[in-house]
Design a protein that fits this description.
The chain is built from eight helices and 34 strands. It has 743 residues and is mainly beta. Strand 32 and strand 33 form a beta hairpin. It is globular.
Length: 743
């Protein structure tokens, strides 16, 4: 229950929101919308011209990817669309499957070096505050819950804190996905074929009749095992057990009662079946090339068996310990994961005037996960020893309320209240033995948590200067939950509540139509999950800190350019360290504690348009994390966060050359990663080249082609310290050709 002090604070915020309507209705003056200049680069638009830029945000380092760019470059997913952006790091294991609760074996997104990135779909968070699928990295991203790329109107990538409306926990930034709406009636068919048996099919229908508009779509995406370039012998290998099959549906209905009131219903569904290899073979440690695991004879199995050679008893500090883990890929031949996402939204927009959408939304988001992992015998890899099975279900339902008003042409009040009821259930690593039919249960977790947030901000424009002060109240309710180990040891996951008031100030100064500077300060706040609290070495405090941003963007003649610097300081972020297990001194277990951290990042961008057809773009970004202090630990213990700079690139250079004339457009994208740690990556730098082309045959038909990793480079975007060098390779050279028909 809320204390009297907390109730009073929430009541004060609600009263302030309600009073806005009284003040605004007293002003009968005709109000006008903001008009901002639009600057187009590579099909992207000036972020200040979007709805969020005019109403919610002030300044900031924001990139907007439009549906036109998505269609011309034929991005295959949200991750594919954002991975080349400066300051944005998309790390993937190289396959579509993922292991729930383990960030090392799933896709992750970080912005400005910080993993706590919040995803929004039409302003609604797609997070679960009872648990995270990447819990051991405290990541906020839910990449597996993304909608189909063909249903997206635009993607706004916001680097760093830039508005109180987005949340005090978005320390890295926000990725705001705006979905399409039905307009004129049309149907679109899309079919593509590519490397390794890749097949992509999509069909959509959109239209509008009287007051009702709609859009409905379905797409299929499937692929056989991919190929990659082996780091050691530079040969093309098959990434065994990396195939997938995915279905995605989308439905959106809009009914306009009048020009100010409307009702919207949206349903998204995604079903993914993906084979799960965990990692690729390390050919440098094998005595022969292994493509057919069933052909391994008992002699080879004994010779290379890690138990026989004692690798399982080595301390983790011994380099040979990694070789033991290299055999995980053998264990997982035939293993797979299933994931199903089903989300429902009902949104009523009221008083949609002065360009501001005031609305109330109710929603229900649900994700289900299943893993089947095969474990062959150590002594004979041809024989299945047992299966490991895991299930997980996370659910979040809640309400969003948004209310804003223009007091006059230069003053916008915007406010909101969010409530979500979050639950998480998991049965992890149960064991089934086919020979005997014995089933042993794994570890159970069951957690529930309610979360409240309320904010109010005032966007004020004074001549060339715009500033937006704001306040946000964050309340993370008590975790109610329990855990049961596979040895039938029960424990409580009940925790206390966390609450805090955060402030922010976001500013922008327009020197003229072509040059602007922005700066911001925002307090940060993020509560830990119950599972982190349960494994804490001491009392775990919520994350608190400050984020500072300073940037500039401008254009001269045919050139556009920008610079951005961000500093994020957290007094007590979450860090992990390992200690010997109480039950077995040769084993280690992770503990969580609060640590001080500082993340610094900066980015430089430049674009030049030669004429109506040719343009080039280039960017450089750098991010670094410093762990300043380990609180509550001895000098001999170091947090795993000390490896944060070693497990991703430190510098990223991106550039593109684009040609667009009449019916034909094409371009090359270049990405150069440097500063990789060769202890974990196959090289300390990677240079990747991608190519795309699009040809509009007539008003109905469109053809396109893509080639990724044109030079067939051996590279990785993700590293796991315990798995050795180059354990998760990315796709080798691959192509996709397709046609699109619209009528």
């Amino acid at each position: 229950m809320l204390t009297k002090k907390k109730k009073l604070l929430v009541l004060s915020v609600l009263t302030a929101i309600a009073s806005v309507d009284f003040v605004c209705n007293a002003n009968a003056e005709e109000l006008k919308s903001y008009k901002l200049n639009e600057m187009i680069v590579e099909g992207r638009i000036d972020p200040n011209s979007t709805y969020d830029g005019q109403i919610i945000r002030t300044g900031g380092d924001v990139t907007v990817i439009t549906s036109q760019e998505i269609e011309k470059k034929h991005y295959t997913s949200v991750a594919d669309a954002i991975k080349r952006l400066p300051g944005v790091d998309v790390q993937t294991a190289g396959y579509k499957a993922f292991e729930y609760d383990y960030a090392d074996y799933q896709d992750e997104v970080s912005i400005n070096g910080d993993r706590r990135v919040v995803f929004l779909i039409d302003g609604k968070r797609i997070t679960n505050e009872a648990n995270s699928s990447a819990n051991n990295h405290y990541s906020k991203s839910q990449m597996f819950a993304m909608i189909g790329i063909q249903n997206i109107e635009r993607i706004e990538v916001i680097k760093g804190a830039s508005a109180m409306a987005y949340g005090s926990d978005a320390t890295g930034g926000v990725i705001n996905i705006i979905t399409k709406k039905g307009n004129k009636s049309h149907t679109t068919l899309d079919a593509a074929y590519g490397s390794w048996g890749t097949q992509k099919y999509a069909v959509s229908n959109a239209g509008k009749k009287d007051k009702l508009s709609w859009i409905v779509s379905y797409n299929k995406d499937k692929r056989n095992d991919m190929k990659y370039k082996d780091r050691e012998y530079k040969k093309t290998r098959t990434y065994t057990n990396s195939s997938y099959d995915e279905d995605n549906t989308f439905l959106k209905l809009d009914y306009e009662f009048d020009k100010h009131n409307s009702l919207e219903f949206m349903h998204t569904y995604k079903n993914t079946y993906a084979m799960y290899p965990i990692m690729a073979p390390d050919y440098s440690s094998l005595s022969q090339l292994i493509n057919d695991f069933a052909a391994i004879d008992a002699g080879l199995a004994t010779q290379l068996n890690p138990n026989t050679n004692g690798y399982n008893k080595l301390p983790q500090s011994d380099p040979a310990w990694n070789r033991y883990h290299k055999w995980w890929y053998v264990f997982n031949e035939g293993s797979f994961t299933k994931n199903r996402t089903s989300n429902y939204d009902l949104k009523y927009t009221f008083k949609d005037d002065d360009g501001i959408e005031n609305y109330i939304r109710v929603y229900n988001d649900e994700n289900r996960y299943y893993m089947n992992r095969n474990r062959p015998k150590f002594t004979d890899f041809r024989v299945l020893d047992y299966k490991q099975l895991s299930w997980a279900k996370e659910r979040s339902n809640g309400v969003n309320l948004r209310y804003g008003k223009k007091l006059d042409d230069n003053n916008i009040i915007y406010s909101g209240i969010d409530y979500s009821n979050n639950s998480f259930w998991q049965h992890a690593y149960a064991s089934y033995y086919p020979d005997t039919g014995i089933f042993k249960h794994g570890n159970y977790k069951n957690i529930k948590r309610d979360v409240w947030n309320a904010f109010i901000q005032d966007k004020i424009k004074l001549d060339k200067f715009t500033f937006t002060p704001g306040v946000r109240y964050n309340y993370y309710g008590k975790n109610s939950g329990s855990a049961l180990s596979n040895k039938n040891v029960a424990s409580s996951l009940d925790t206390g509540s966390y609450s805090h008031l955060t402030l922010g100030l976001f500013t922008n100064y327009d020197f003229n139509d072509n040059h602007r500077m922005y700066a911001s300060w925002s307090q940060l706040y993020n509560a830990p999950y119950a599972t982190a609290i349960a494994s804490a070495a001491n009392k775990l405090e919520a994350e608190k800190g400050n984020a500072y941003t300073l940037g500039y963007s401008g254009s001269i003649s045919k050139s556009t350019f920008g610079a951005n610097y961000t500093l994020t300081k957290l007094d007590n972020t979450f860090g992990k360290f390992t200690v010997p297990s109480d039950t077995d001194p040769e084993l280690f277990e992770a503990k969580v504690t609060n640590v001080k951290s500082k993340v610094t990042s900066f980015c430089l961008t430049y674009g030049y348009r030669f004429d109506d057809n040719w343009s080039v773009n280039a960017a450089y970004s750098h991010a670094k994390t410093d762990i300043e202090e380990n609180q509550g630990t001895s000098d001999q213990l170091s947090t795993t966060d000390d490896l944060r700079n070693s497990l991703h690139y430190n510098n990223k250079y991106t550039s593109s050359v684009n040609y667009d004339k009449g019916k034909f457009s094409t371009g090359f994208d270049f990405t150069f990663y440097t500063g990789m740690n060769a202890k974990y990556f196959s090289d300390n730098e990677f240079f990747i080249v991608d190519w795309h082309a699009n040809y509009k045959i007539d008003k109905n038909w469109n053809a396109y082609a893509l080639v990724n990793n044109l030079t067939n480079r051996a590279y990785e975007t993700k590293a796991v310290a315990v798995e050795g060098i180059g354990a998760m390779p990315m796709e080798g050279i691959n192509f996709l050709v397709g046609v699109n028909y619209s009528f």
